[in-house]
Each structure stands twice: as structure tokens, then as C-alpha cells.
Amino acid sequence: MPRVPAHLCECALGMLQGGMRTADVARAINCNAHTVRRIRQRYRETGRTAERPRSGRPRVTTPAQDRYIRTSHLRDRYRMATTTARVTPGTHNPSISTQTVRNRLREAGLRACTPVVRQVLTRHHRQQRRLRAQTHHRLNRQDWQKVLFTEESQFCFIRGDGRIRVYRQRNECYTEACTRKRDRFGGGGSVMLWGGVSQHHRTKLFVIAGSLNAVRYRENILLPHVIPFLQAHPDMTLQHDNATSHTARSVRDFLQDRNASVLPWPVKSPDLNPIEHVWDLLDRRVRARAIPPRNVWKLAGALMEEWGNISQQELANLVQSVRRRCTAILNAAGMYFN
User: Fold this and answer.
1) Shared-domain flag, residues 72 and 167
2) Per the CB 3.0–4.6 Å rule, which of 172, 263, 302, 332 could disulfide with 168?
3) What does each C-alpha distance from 311 to 59, 293, 338 come to in angstroms?
4) What's CA 21's distance to the chain center, in Å?
5) Which domain holds residue 21?
């Protein structure tokens, strides 16, 4: 049976000293009558209601082995627990179990997690990120209110992002309730969208058909969506990343001919763009619907609807976080930050 908490032991002792019967005290604290008698006997012998220290199960590893397990996995973060268990002898057995290794790592604050996938940052990339972060860090809150953050994002009808977990019992690995059906060859399709957000505004979502090149970006996005927005808000600055379709000479000349101000952006810096979090928020809202979309067309419609349901305050909070992101990049010497 589980142990009786210390405060209930004190309550039980007080009830006994108050003249209550053992059976009544047991019912009051929801335990066995024999447990109440042991609490009273323990108090008579030791003057305390707390249980005596227990030796517990003996550890199969020594403190030196615990340090070895921790150091091995700190040196090689991808080292498997089975490897460590195979080469670590126990105090009573030829080797310890894999679960013992996991327990020791958990005691040291190390847990097995899915690694975050990030782009490769060369020395040049880090330098450019740091220089741009220094420049952007000088901008104040009012300056960031005048930036239109834009980007494209792809939303898959069937997606496995590593966040989904299943709770199952033994031998339930292949049961219907514990498996997910997925086409190996990418069945289900996807939707490519373009959008832009700022402190006080947002653009309409545009569905991109096929791949996006410089011509389609100029004719289908900049001309009908971005240029009218910038003309209606002449103090706004366009932000887009360094994708090939954005940095092509024809696109740069097109924006220059129309006097569109473009914010210089460091290479490989999606962590600086607040619209990345907007896409994640949009995807979560669609997947949290009571009736999920059944095909690509309904997925596009749901994305359009949820785009309008996101409050402007949420977008404003993300826009105002850019300055903190610049500070984080400077603190990380141009590397990615948490």
C-alpha cells in the first residue's frame, strides 16, 4: 500500500489523542486500521509519526560509474543508452540494463529528445547575421511598426512534425488505435501560401500554384498585392528573405522602379522573422478544428478562414519581438538561439 502522507499521520495522531477509535480514524484518513495502530506505536517508541528511513533497493552502479555514464553522453550526445549499458558492468551482474542508464541520465538532467533540425551556418553566415542584428537592434518600436513581414509557407495535408505522441500498452504497437496511416510517396498533397503581417495590418493570403520563380513572384504577388499595399501605406517597408525568387535582378529592378523600400535581411535567418510563428499558429488552429479538412481544397479554405480569425494583437506581439530576437542573435554570436 502507498505510504500515508506526513500531515495525515499527524492528523491521525491528533484524533487518537482526542479519544477517537482506531477504526474511525482509519476511515477518516482513508487507510487500514492496522496502519493507524502502527502510527500510534511508532509515536510511542520514537516520539515521531514519520516513518523510519528505509534502505531501499541497492544501486547496481557506483558513483564513479554514474559519472562515467553522464560524461559519456555529454561527450557524444547521440550515444545510445544500449551502447552504454553493454559496456558498463554492474555491481552484481555482468552488465547493467538500458533502463538503468536512462535512470542515471535522468538523474543528471539528461533526457532523450528529438533533435532540432537547423540549417548549416558557416562563418560568413554567422558574421552576416551578427552585423544585420546589430543594425536592426538600433531600430525602435515605432520603426518595426512600419515593416511588412512577408513569406511563403507550405502546408501539407498529411503531416508528421514529431509533436504527435501515442500512449499505448505492451503489444499494442500495431493496433488500429495506436497507428497512423500515411502514404510513403507523399499522398494527400499540399498548399503553398503567401502572406504578410505588420503591427497594424495583414495582407490577404494568396495560394501559389506550382513552383515560385522570379516571374511569378513579380507578376502574381508583388504587382497585385505588395505594391498596392505599399502605395496605400507609403511609410511601410517590405521585408522578404533571400530566396532566389526574391533576390533576382528583375525583382530588384521592379521594386526599385516603383520606389518600394526593402529591409535588408541576413541570410539563413528564419528565426528572426516573426511570420514563421504566424504560420505555426495558423497550422495549429487548422489542425485543432473539430472537423478537420478532408482534402487539399478544404485545407486551403480552412487556412484562409483561420488567417482572418487570428487577432491583430497576436500579430503585433510577434512583430514587437523582433528586437528581442536581434539581442538573442548578438548574445549567441550569430548562431541560432532558443
Assistant:
1) no
2) 172
3) 55, 22, 25
4) 55
5) 6-46
Name the domain count of the chain. Answer: 3
Cell of 278: 504566424
Is residue 118 in some structural domain? no
Phi then psi dihedrals of residue 99, to 5 deg: -65, -35
Per-residue pLDDT of the chain (338 residues; tens, 9 = 90+): 567 888 888 888 889 888 899 999 999 988 888 989 988 888 888 888 877 777 777 888 889 999 999 999 999 988 999 999 988 887 666 778 899 999 999 999 888 887 777 778 899 999 999 999 999 988 988 999 999 999 999 988 766 555 566 777 777 777 877 776 665 554 567 899 999 999 999 999 999 988 899 999 999 999 999 999 999 999 999 999 999 999 999 999 999 999 999 999 998 888 899 999 999 999 999 988 888 888 888 999 999 999 999 999 999 999 999 999 999 999 988 888 76
Which of 135, 123, 163 has the alpha carbon at shortest distance from 268? 123
Residues 183 and 274 in one domain: yes
